[in-house]
Amino acid sequence: MINGQSEPVKVLVTGGAGFIGSHLTEELLDMGYRVCVVDDLSTGSLDNLKQVSSNPGLEVRCFSVNDRDLLLKACKGVRYIFHQAAIPSVPRSISDPLSTNHANVNGTLSVLVAARDAGVKKVVYASSSSVYGDTPTLPKVEEMVPNPLSPYAVSKMAGEHYCAAFTASYGLATTSLRYFNVYGPRQAADSAYAAVIPKFISLIKKGKPPQIFGDGCQSRDFTFIKDVVRANILAAQSPETGAYNIGSGMRISLSELCSQMLKMMDRTDITPVYASPRPGDVLHSLAEISLAKIAFGYNPLYSLEQGLKATIEDYE
Ligand SMILES: NC(=O)c1ccc[n+]([C@@H]2O[C@H](COP(=O)([O-])OP(=O)(O)OC[C@H]3O[C@@H](n4cnc5c(N)ncnc54)[C@H](O)[C@@H]3O)[C@@H](O)[C@H]2O)c1
């Protein structure tokens, strides 16, 4: 029951067996929503939903969002769609741009068509800070002209354009959230395409040196998963549409991040190794977050230290 209504409100989380989608699913269930997860398990795992697997409000359907008939059926009676499903990696998109395009661009179009046809009230779309590319201006502000540099960034931008086009053409409310480097418990650590924080934790735990691509001066705005989850729910409940940065509003260089993590994990005996910069990686990234604050009250609650502590503890 939400807001005094007798029937629980149904929502759909695409990519709900992934890192961000599973945290979002947990929180939505906690809030009393009925949650349908659609995931093809290409990068996600049902293990991520272990903690809520016996919750009667959860339904899990394993198929691709590109399966339009099944998706339309799953969207029946759904109020909000949280569209997280994607192949979420810059390097992977560089080695295989076609599969990234299929999952991310065709997949988003398929979700929007199903949302339109099923009368869904709002789609919240997981976009990415990568759409800004390597423009030197910091912080990144939503009104800047996007400059996607990798096939992944192009796919995320195309998804945003499709969202805006569905709002303009069919009146379907959509909000794109440009996530800045999300991290937290359960983020995959051991794939070749793992994000930097879980990769560092996993290597440090094994007593191995973390690897930094480039000189380590490149900086990122790291956003704790719980802040991203709240941003999604606030955006869904708000009448505002459009694209918004979701970050912490702070940045740290990768060398500093690494030394902070080594200290927190009591392994200052380890020194990182440096490798050539990776193609497609941007140099600096920092979000201006005031637009999301004004539009739907987004306010990050977790400092990097608090977030890292929770993440490291989870790997213990
Ligand atoms: N993690 C980050 O820092 C970050 C930053 C910016 C944007 N994003 C975006 O957030 C979303 C979630 O990312 P994540 O980090 O949780 O990644 P993840 O790989 O853990 O989750 C993605 C999920 O989508 C599923 N999926 C992929 N293709 C699918 C398809 N065709 N049909 C159904 N399910 C499919 C995967 O199996 C997986 O469970 C992605 O859209 C990603 O582009 C993530």
Helix/strand-derived class? alpha/beta
User: What's the average pLDDT?
Assistant: 95
CATH superfamily of the domain at 10-182 and 225-247 and 286-301: NAD(P)-binding Rossmann-like Domain
Order of helices and strands: EHEEHEHHEHEEHEEEHEEHEHH
What does this structure look like?
Helix 1 links the parallel strand 1 and strand 2. The protein has a domain of 212 residues: 3-Layer(aba) Sandwich (Rossmann fold). The two termini are 36 Å apart. The mean pLDDT is 95. It is of the alpha/beta class. The longest helix has 22 residues. It has ten helices and 13 strands. It is globular. It has a seven-stranded parallel β-sheet, sandwiched between helices. The structure holds nicotinamide-adenine-dinucleotide. The site of nicotinamide-adenine-dinucleotide (NAD) has 30 residues, from helix 1, helix 4 and strand 5.
What is this structure's SSE topology?
Blueprint: E1 10-14, H1 19-30, E2 34-38, E3 58-61, H2 68-74, E4 78-83, H3 90-95, H4 97-118, E5 122-128, H5 151-170, E6 173-179, E7 182-183, H6 196-205, E8 211-213, E9 219-220, E10 223-224, H7 225-237, E11 242-246, E12 252-253, H8 254-264, E13 273-275, H9 290-296, H10 304-315
Parallel strand pairs: 1-2, 1-4, 2-3, 4-5, 5-6, 6-11, 7-10, 8-13
Antiparallel strand pairs: 9-12
This protein binds nicotinamide-adenine-dinucleotide.
